[in-house]
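G.,

No rush on this.
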Amino acid sequence: MASSPPPHAPTRPQRTEQANTSQKAEKARAATPHPPRGRRRGLTVAAAGIAVLCAGNLGGGVYVALNADDERGTSGKAASRTQSPPTGVPGVPGGPVANVADERQVAPLRRVVPPDVLAVSRGGPIGRAEIARIGKLRRVQDVIAVAGGAVQLQGRGINTFAVDPSQFRSWTPPGTAKRNELWEALAAGRFVVSTAAADQLRLAQGTRYPVVARTVPQLEMGGSGTLGLPGIDMLVDRKTGTDMGLVPNVAVMVNAPGVDTAKLAGSVKKILGRDADVVNLHERRYQAPAEAGGRPGSYLDLYKEAARSCPGLSWTVLAAIGQVESDHGRNAGRSSAGALGPMQFLPSTWRSYGVDGDGDGKADIMNPYDAIPAASRYLCAHGGGKGGRQLYKAIWAYNHADWYVQKVLNLARAYAVRYD
């Protein structure tokens, strides 16, 4: 079974009524947990009207940034594009992950949407019609368009996205997505940077800095974290981005579970043409093993780290269960039987096996940093580390169905072929 395509969010499965840790999933697909996303390189970003444009980025990549006043921004194909609404595009699957009445309030994290493809325009806003066409590609589930450009901070060019914090947080690595303080700071008009930018520019949280764009606002740094996009080292909220003159809808991110991402990138490139750079985020050059300090940066990392707590248990078994149960966090809501979270624990079982995996003082059934280690703990307690027949029984304990065990084992073998 091939395992190269990214995961696909399943229809909420019917659950057994057994009081076991999790329940069935409706479909089996050979999909992968989103690979590590860290410092990446290799795309082009339109600049926001500054004199000296980005020739490089703090994450180590190379850029050819364009001035927003470049002639391609005022004439030709790019200039004729119609800006799409920032809150979503009619006809595009998915749409906003979370909606709030006041942009200054941040909605809670609802689900994780790992980006599979990133496209950045070199000639101006990406048109509404083009975004809608991308949304109609096979298996595309979510598309988000953001403003962006190259600005100057501390005398260095830095590529910046202007985003809605409530929506965009779901597109970042799990450890960043769950950090409410970052997104609240962004919603309050502060800027957030990548860990690399904070270190290299020696930025201090709570300090104001001049940001050179079409205007030169004094913005306060609200924090830093792994952003998970190649060469994008700074985020501001949409209002700040508009005030700075960032290019609207200069980039789109695409989530298309279960497809060949190389082919998806080619299809997006065909739609956008020569005016855009398209990046397949699953290419190895855009991957990093973990966040700074060794903290897992993706579901793939989390599965591998959690398996180490149970000698003999392969991380591929956890990845397979994570796919079947919630498609790696994409469908983590309450099931018909009451199971919750990325590993679909029943609350009664969670009380016995829940783990505070990230050391924040609480075991959160919805937090992948807690739920995945808890799944490892449950399997280990049922003999999952002994392999063979004992592993079969441990998976069966997770969900009392032989078809479920066979599906998990088949997917685990597919992950092993793909990643080991």
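When you get to it, here's the other one too:
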Amino acid sequence: MPLLLLFFHIKNTMNYVDINSNEMPKKMYPTDKEQTRTTFETRSRRKRLAQVAATIASVILLLLAVLGLVYGSFYLYRRYVTDANDKRDNDEYLRKLVRQVNDSPETTWKAKFNKFGVKNRSYGFKYTRNQTAVEEYVEQIRKFFESDAMKRHLDELENFNSSDVPKNFDARQKWPNCPSISNVPNQGGCGSCFAVAAAGVASDRACIHSNGTFKSLLSEEDIIGCCSVCGNCYGGDPLKALTYWVNQGLVTGGRDGCRPYSFDLSCGVPCSPATFFEAEEKRTCMKRCQNIYYQQKYEEDKHFATFAYSMYPRSMTVSPDGKERVKVPTIIGHFNDKKTEKLNVTEYRDIIKKEILLYGPTTMAFPVPEEFLHYSSGVFRPYPTDGFDDRIVYWHVVRLIGWGESDDGTHYWLAVNSFGNHWGDNGLFKINTDDMEKYGLEYETAVV
């Protein structure tokens, strides 16, 4: 009985419908109007939920953006403060270095603070080498040295009496009809000193060889852009650049020649190595002349040398990791082999002087200390002598156009730099290399 009563209770509660009954219960099926209202309410509820979710998401994104802006502003401010402090510290250090040079009775030169001067630091340049291409260049240099033309060249150097070498010499005075010798280039924001100096030597020697009839500047852009084995905007080898002059030739450069120099000059005097990254990204080989140059096509504008060589004993890095080096034949190495004792500093300098006196300028590579960038006048010599290695900013290649003797009888080279006319002594400098000889200075050139 209790189960039966429960059954009837449930039946009544659920409004149970007897299948035999003709009367339909209310609320069992919603009407069309009720269905529409229910659907509308559901959609409205979903829409409101979506709006709430979108609002929350927008607020979250806005908060993230504000946090990112605050963090970014803080980072930029902190970097600005750090850079400002670093620049102030660097300026104080370099100004002190300049004062040391100018106040010392031992120095033979004067410095002027250069706001573009930098301290020694690592810039993280990555160098790549094509070992096969480098080995091919080394083999070509060896063949140059074994040629009959080189044998005649060596004989001329040997037969020229050292006593006939003047104490002072300036190539601009001996070859006044060659304006390229007086030209002071500006390498700008690319570490192309090796190409600039090599193209300068090529221009000078081409003019000298022509007795002053060829007066054009040859293109450093042709080297830095198209000679991949020579180097890039992080540096390179002038001997390879001069070998490229022999093999591939160089077109005219300068402002209105076939291939003018394209890198930024507004970044400093000189530009910081930190600017070289951007220049390297833009560096490209373009084998056509600029539009205003109508004299000849690119291939027809090439000028060639006969052979290239190094003056002072040196080696060349061939492996990509920089560990494998091979020796290249050199002029002074040749004369060393003929003697029982190696040439002393004075003797090998005399050979380089003969080379310049008879044939024209050469390049010279040397380590640049921090104080050199502030050179103003006189005969540069590293100062202070202590801690020189810690002050080397980079190795640099310049063009030697002469030499001389100071009042105390010490030797100096006269060189054209690649920092423009307003650096140093109108773009030039004198340098006593006595304290640098141990680093193995390099002198390269070529014969037309």
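Residues 1-22 have pLDDT under 50 and may be disordered. The chain has one domain: 121-447.

Enjoy the weekend,
O.
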